[in-house]
Amino acid sequence: MTASTSGHGTWSASDLPHSGRLAGVRAALSDTHLPWQIDPPSTPSVVCDLRWHSLDDARVVECATGPIEGRRGRAELRRTDDEMLAVLLVMSGREHVRQGEVVVDLGAGDLLVWDSRVPASFCVREPLHKITLMVPRDRVPHAQATSLIAAERPLGALLSSQVMSLARVATDMGPVEAVTAVDVVTDLLSRTLAGSAPVVDGNSLLASRAMTIIEHELDDPDLGPTVLASRLGVSVRTLHLAFSSVGKTPAAHIRIRRLERVRRDLADPRMAARTITEMAHRWGFADAAHLSRTFKKAYGITPSAHRQDAVPS
């Protein structure tokens, strides 16, 4: 049984058997947050709790999740019927979000507005609690594709407070009150965005270009900061400065993405015949021992143990 966005309700992955949790999370997040593709998590246990309320033509969703990542690509955009804006407020934890040319690491108190029309991806590496307000895009004429709102500024602080209050009192609202409440919040959102610039600076753009190259060349064992800087026509120092905008080094991002590809392959029954050594060479690791050390340091489990947990025997 998946989440339903009519009225209000709650949903928890813990109510499902372990074997069905990933599919359940994918369906529940797609029902409440628009269609998303969810990737296998780094740990066998999938944690996700949702609480949602439909208010007039808007929806507010409270989400508590463990490590998880996903994306909205062409297939998900084609399955999206309505053009929506999402106001994402992080209550605790951290979430890495990429949409278009914008790459941001969100922490507690951060506000991000994302657009249903633009491909996006997210990655959660630690327990996260967030509230997302979904509103029709035509209600907010000043919206850019993606905007980070400064929560420490007066309008940003007020918007944060309204989103939190809306999530808290939504259950007790009648239809007329819901219409008024959504009008008030969307009006404030529109006025706030009218004075906000989208998050696109030189460092973010360069980091985004670098990440695109990384995604296409992860299997190249020589790929590293020096090669990457050469591809981009910048110095290694400039490349490191660009990655400071996303809170990690180029080498760390390459290592993380390679590990994530290996982890995905290990959980894929179609890859069951491939050895750990073959996977190591496929994704740019020197050998199986190097992969095993790096994998265990990142995830606390060896590749072979992760495969046993993830793939049914």
Topology:
Layout: E1 8-12, H1 18-33, E2 37-38, E3 48-55, E4 58-65, E5 68-72, H2 74-78, E6 84-92, E7 95-99, E8 102-106, E9 111-115, E10 120-124, E11 128-136, E12 147-149, H3 154-169, H4 175-194, H5 202-217, H6 225-232, H7 236-243, H8 250-266, H9 276-282, H10 288-299, H11 303-310
Antiparallel strand pairs: 1-3, 2-5, 3-4, 4-11, 5-10, 6-9, 6-11, 7-8, 7-10, 9-12
Question: Your description of this structure?
Answer:
This protein has about 325 residues and is an alpha+beta fold. It is about 40% helix and about 20% strand. The chain is built from eleven helices and twelve strands. The strands form two sheets. The protein has a seven-stranded antiparallel beta sheet with strand order 1-3-4-11-6-9-12, sandwiched between helices. Strands 2-5-10-7-8 form a five-stranded antiparallel beta sheet. Helix 5 (about 200-215) crosses helix 7 (about 235-245), helix 5 crosses helix 8 (about 250-265) and helix 6 crosses helix 7 (about 235-245).
What structural keywords apply?
seven-stranded antiparallel beta sheet, alpha+beta, 313 residues, disordered N terminus
Percent range of helical residues: 40-55%
Task: Output the helix-strand order.
Answer: EHEEEEHEEEEEEEHHHHHHHHH
Instruction: Record the strand order, biggest sheet.
Output: 1-3-4-11-6-9-12
Largest sheet: 7 strands, antiparallel
Please mark out the parts with pLDDT under 50 across 5 or more consecutive residues, or reply none.
Answer: 1-5
What gross morphology would you assign? globular
Arithmetic mean pLDDT: 85
User: CA-to-CA gap between the ends?
Assistant: 26 Å
Number of helices: 11
Q: Assess the beta-strand content as a share of residues.
A: 15-25%
Structural class: alpha+beta
Number of strand elements: 12
Computed CA radius of gyration, to the nearest angstrom: 21 Å
